[in-house]
Amino acid sequence: SALVSMTPTPAIALCLLTSVLVWVAPSIDARASKAGEATDPARIEALLLNGGGTPAGNYQSHLMHVRMLVDILRAAGVSERRLTILSGDGPDPTADVALREVQPEEDFWLVTGTRLEQPFRTPITYESTRVAGAALKAATRAELDRWFASVGTRLKPGDTLLLYVTDHGTKNAQDTRNNRITLWGKGEGLSVGELRALLAGLDRRVRVVMLMSQCYSGSFANAAWREGASLPSGNACGYFSTTAERPAYGCYPEVRDLDNLGHSFDFLQELGQSGSLRGGHLKVLEEDATPDAPLRTSDFFLEDLLRRRADAEGKAFETLVDGLLKQAWRRKGAWEPEIRLLDAVGRSFGVFSPRWLAEIQDQAARLPQVGDQLDTHAKAWKTTLGDANRANLERFLAKQPAWAEQVSDRALREGGSSARELAGTFLYDLGEYTRGDTWMEGRLSALRGRAETARALAYRMEVRLGVVLRMRAILVTIAGREYLSRGGTADERAAYESLLECESLSLPLSEPVPGMQSPDRPAFPPLEADLIAAREVLPAWLGIRFGEVPAPLRKAQGLTPGVSMVTAVYPDSPAEEADLQVADVILGPPEARFEDPRQIREWTMLATVDQPAPLAVLRGGERMEVTIVPKPYPMKWPDLPGPPRVSNAAPAWRPLQLTAYRGELPADLRGSGPHLLYFWATWCGPCKAALPELLAFQRQRNTPVVAITDEPAGTLDTFFGTFDQRFPDLVATDELRRSFLAYGVSGTPTFVVVDGDGVIRSYSVGYTPAKGLGIEGWAWSERPTARGPGSR
Predict the structure, then answer these.
(1) Is 647 left (phi over 0), alpha (psi -120 to 50) or beta?
(2) Radius of gyration of the chain (CA)
(3) Which of 91, 208, 352, 475 has the least CB density, counted as fewest CB within 10 Å?
(4) What share of the chain is helix, strand, coil (3-state, %, to 5)?
(5) What is the pTM of this model?
(6) In the predicted model, is pLDDT for residue 22 greater than 60?
(7) b/e per residue 439-452 (b: at least 16 CB within 10 A)
(8) CB atoms within 10 A of CB 184
(9) Quick one: pLDDT band at residue 20, thresholds 50, 70, 90?
């Protein structure tokens, strides 16, 4: 009211305007989302696109996405005449959707990597696209052009076009700003530029909201800019499953046998519960356990704005962003929703919740390298399993001549009996034979287990990279909003608010749509657990390359097919230490010579690290024995901090360099009795709600509490100047966040109990009166049973 009534001088007005913008800007996102009331369904036009390209690439999951969205739109009251579906070949009755067929035989894995894998594999079956109660059209460029030329021109000011794409996408390597959507038919597609041209034909007062789940979909955020414009028009926006440079989850083979997974499923499940597109976006950020890195047009706009600003100032992009974040964090209470979102994402995936790009830049660079190495190892285990499976199959067929005849290449080629008709009985007999040989079954099972574990670990590293990119996008958006509040132009602020208003689309659902509830999924493993598993699954290492032994030499020496010749010895390797030499022929362990081709690889990969092992070797016609000590495969692990495990040693205390705000901090946690580390913030409501129980724990357990915050002393001076509750005596500041990083803090409050030996005994995040401190064996008699003011 004071601002309204006074008439300031220009200088005073500028100062007032600056202070108002600095304070108001952080709430722009929240204000826009709250203002986004449900849209009148009579003003919504929906265009659903599922191209697929070919029947083999038009997966059943894509059709499931379309059906889910149709159910949601119908429940929201969108008229059938305002709903257009372009899917596959449209009304053509020819089968155009590939169905995922489950392999019924549990012993099928025994023929993977052999010549029988493909003949025995369950073939893909197809069906024709159908959506109950809906007329379909083909997902071709011609149909798209017809829609925009007819329906598009009839859209009126105030109408909303919801454009949904679940499909394949292709990356334009020359210009990722112009990637393509795959449409139906050979070579059919739609580029960003082509979509921009189609949208330009609509009335400028029609709102266009894109929801896209295809690979490289982030490129289509560029469609919000009209050709040649420096700022988005504000009437077009979108939600995208991933960035312009990254594939979406469906391009990863690890998800092909999984149901109801990925950006579209999670987004649509939330949309069917709340009707809010913004809610769907938050859901996938927090819970989607795939490598997707979702973003909105408003996120894309702010990053583009900051990149141009960094170029203009001659700064590195990361330096500019962290400088803006430093300004933003001076008012952390104003950014509580964004901080809580970072914390929620971190907790969901067991990683540290960052506050600076500098804290995650190394992880963003290193995770792909580690994932690639694990993927290489997974392929090596799979290849080795294939070698062993082939040897096992040949032994079985040698003892079963009737089967050998029926599954010979000639018999399968001539097709007297289809391979699938034979598969069930054959695989049963092969499984019984294999289980009858304890040594062979153990060998094959070990290789299979390592291959599957390595593949799962490599995929989860990709997921973690997606998670890091999600948190990076949140940080960049905070920095961008801070820039707008301090240095952005009026046009830039108006463009951003227009995008937020565009993105606030909400469907009018009177109740949740049946069948849209999220399925229960297992918790995502913490990074530390995966790193332990990865170390266990890494192959042992000798440091050699090997090849086949020339047939004349093998015949002259009477050698088995399992022998191998050394073709290279790596420096500083176990092989060099054992004096293995190029041209040595490795025969195998003295008491168990290699019988199967390339068995040296299997022996090496399964060897016990650091345990000396003898090998028989043929060198220059002379047989000899060497002792080799396999070593761990050389590999550098990512330093991606996550919560330390209970019963592990706590991070070293002195290097954390905490600054005492009040009280005398312990010189070391080890040897000075137990402590409860309490990570908190002045703006954190649950942190304050926890104080009575926290102090009761300190008193009853005689355990000092060290309250650690990343806020500066000046902020604490202001806080404690007005705070009238009791508070722990020991308070430390950690503006560099070394302790937050070391303890993998992903939310406040976090409670960590460290015993007198420096061992972590408890780790808990969050506080409600019902949950309490989350410390095992601790019960507070005064804890209220009802939800209190600090619950969340």
Answers:
(1) left
(2) 31
(3) 91
(4) 45, 15, 40
(5) 0.85
(6) no
(7) ebbebbebbbebbb
(8) 27
(9) very low
Compute the distance between CA of residue 606 and CA of residue 614 in angstroms, rounded to an integer. Answer: 15
* Residue 787 in this model has a pLDDT that exceeds 80: no
Q: Are strands 180-182 and 189-191 parallel, antiparallel or unpaired?
A: antiparallel
> 278, 298 in Cβ contact below 8 A?
no
pLDDT-wise least confident of 33-37, 40-44, 726-730: 33-37
SS3 sequence of 619-659? ECCEEEEEEECCEECCCCCCCCCCCCCCCCECCCCHHHCCE
| Angle (nearest 5°) at CA 584 between 578 and 589 | 65
The pLDDT score that the predictor gives to residue 443 is: 93
CA 738-741-747 angle, to 5 degrees, is 120
Residue 94 phi, psi (nearest 5): -65, 140
pLDDT of 26: 42
Residue 37 has pLDDT above 90, yes or no: no
Contact in structure between 768 and 685 (CB atoms under 8 Å): no
Type of residue found at 161: L
Residue 754: closest CA among 663, 660, 679: 679
Cα–Cα dist 458/378, whole Å: 8
- pLDDT, one tens digit per residue, over 149-161 is 999 999 999 999 9
Cα 76 from Cα 264, distance rounded (Å): 18
756 φ/ψ angles, rounded to the nearest 5 degrees: -65, -15
Bridge-based pairing of strands 295-296 and 236-240 is antiparallel
Q: Which of 298, 290, 295 is nearest to 36 (CA)?
A: 298
- Does the N-terminal peptide bond of residue 26 adopt cis geometry, omega within 30 degrees of 0? no
Candidates 709, 694, 718; CA nearest to 659 is 709
Mind listing the pLDDT tens digit for each residue in 60-70? 888 999 999 99
C-alpha–C-alpha distance, residues 501 and 97, integer Å: 37
Task: Provide the β-strand partners of residue 705.
Answer: 676
Residue 507 pLDDT > 60:
yes
